[in-house]
Input
Amino acid sequence: MPEILITEKPPGSKLFRVKLRLEGGRIARLRVEGDFFIHPEEALEAIEAVFLGGPATKRAVGEMLDSAVQSHPAQWFGITPDDLKAAIEKGIQEAGHGE
Output
């Protein structure tokens, strides 16, 4: 499946992009980029890695993100975990998954 690119700028947040590739109903690639900061910087890579191989469903996205945020505490500047969750869910929905 081709890569899905979601560009978002939620109210009060900064511009960011989610690059997402799904294979067989699972998240094969996830990359988050944009005008935001997460400190420590390593937390973003760790959070992205939590999603790899996970189910491409809204419920699973919420559970994986909650787990990632708890496992990798960080300060978020410019976006929130909820902003990220909504963008990933939008990408999954655009790909025809996400029940």
About this structure: The longest strand covers residues 26-34. DSSP finds three helices and five strands in the chain. The domain at 4-94 is CATH 3.30.390.50 (Enolase-like; domain 1).
